[in-house]
Amino acid sequence: MRIKYTQNTLFTLTALCGALFLTEVTAENTRPFQIAHRGASAYVPEHTLAAESLAYGLGAEYIEQDVAMTSDDVPVVTHDITLDSTTDVAKLFPTRAREDGKFYVIDFTLKEVKSLHARERFNPKTGEPVLPNRFPNQIPQFRIPTFEEALALITGLNHSTGRKVGVHVEIKRPGWHLTQGKDLGAAVVLMLAKYGFSGKDDPFFIQCFEFTEVKRLREKLNYQGPLVQLMGGKKGEDGTDFVHMRTPEGLRELAKWADGIGPSITSFITGKSPESRKISSLVADAKAAGLYTHAWTARADELPKWATSYDDVIRALTEAGVAGYFTDFPGLGR
């Protein structure tokens, strides 16, 4: 018998899994909270409604939303500002690439984006999956959701289950969007407010790698909700000096605008082997500056050099004292 998959399948997944995790974190349970990285992206294609729903059912406290914008000003949930690595855009619209050979979300209408099939992440040059043991690209069945559709799903599930799962939203390349005539940051703030996410006590975060956007959100857009400065290795797209920003002095400066930081796991825990593993002072330095800490990204199929297992990664993050961590595997490692 051949099973026909539909969008209703994702609600079945939630119903089957969610009953196991309808408990709140208690004072006795001090583990860091889980942020489902691109939804349950280890199990189904990232940022689809199926990935969001499964992440909810597997017990994530927050579900990440990466947001870019279409040509007709609709925020959609996708990790990249291009469509090359996660859809069949090159097959459906072969003549729509820019001079660099890439297909940008901002060059397509919502109707066109909705016509694409979302797939497990792959190498556009070879067609091979980036992580071959994840969901096979066999039957077209997934679509890119709008940001509003994702928020409606999560808030709807909160209503029907009685839980309070939050959203962790990343504004993708806001400076670049502004050069293209799109104010993505403003659109994100407005949509979050529409679904009840606006104040410091609401279960959500906005995050961004660009410090210029973090400042703009506070100073120009008058955004008052929780704000996280993401951090890469050395410098950001807007020239942000992440090395300085991770110092005690840099963290104190950052605290004028941000509420938390989001560096990589290897910023909190260093080492090239389990024997050389060492917890850095970053959590303590951030707390001294009044900032909380969210670490990215825990993957069972891509372990840090210092880890012996996925459980070992989670134990190390707990020992380091991070407030939360991103994971492709929500529910695993509890």
Task: Tell me about this structure.
By secondary structure, the chain is α/β, with parallel strands linked by helices. It contains 13 helices and 11 strands. The strands form 2 sheets. Strands 1-2-4-5-6-7-10-11 form an 8-stranded parallel barrel, surrounded by 6 helices. Strands 8-9 form a two-stranded antiparallel sheet. α8 links the parallel β5 and β6 (227-230). The model is unreliable at 1-29 (pLDDT under 50).
Share of helical residues: 25-40%
Distance between the termini: 36 Å
Give the count of helical stretches.
13
Low-pLDDT ranges: 1-29
The residue-averaged pLDDT reads 91
Query: Strand share of the residues?
Result: 5-15%
**Largest sheet, described in full?**
8 strands, parallel, barrel
Order of helical and strand elements: HEHEEHHHEHHEHEHHEHEEHEHE
Shape, principal axes of CA atoms: globular
Radius of gyration: 19 Å
Q: What is the count of β-strands?
A: 11
Helix- and strand-based class?
Answer: alpha/beta
Give, in spatial order, the strands making up the sheet with the most strands.
Answer: 1-2-4-5-6-7-10-11
